[in-house]
Design brief:
With 119 residues, the chain is of the alpha+beta class. The chain contains 3 helices and 4 strands; from the N terminus they run ααββαββ.
Length: 119
């Protein structure tokens, strides 16, 4: 699921970059709003630093997790991959996305941290 999400995220960001160019950087709040409008969950940008290739996102009512209770592992593989795909495409290099909190694990929301890969 992660790989499918990553491929989809890359494709969407490629299209957005063609359509909007550098304006995409100013419209990240609207872009993550597309997740919400598609019924994937309620997305919130917590922080973004494109130059450092870092970001944090909070998601409530994540469609991948909402029906799980007390899972041992995070369940947001598609969305985590999707964020990795579009963010990698946006900054021009691969990023890592870690899900630090997950609704499937009884956390109040899913929380994703994006960062440049560690060597």
């Amino acid at each position: 699921m992660y790989e499918m999400g990553e491929a989809a995220g890359r494709a969407i960001m490629k299209d957005l970059l063609i359509q909007l160019g550098s304006m995409v950087r100013d419209e990240l709040g609207s872009i993550v709003g597309l997740y919400s409008s598609n019924g994937w969950g309620l997305f919130e940008v917590v922080s973004v630093d494109l130059d450092r290739k870092n970001a944090e996102f909070r998601v409530r009512d994540n469609f991948e997790c909402i029906y799980y209770k007390e899972s041992v592992l995070p369940r947001s593989n598609f969305i985590r991959g999707h964020i990795a795909g579009w963010f990698s495409e946006l900054v021009g290099s691969r990023v890592e996305v870690v899900e630090e909190y997950c609704q499937a694990k009884s956390d109040p929301f899913c929380y994703f941290v994006v960062r440049a890969p560690t060597l």
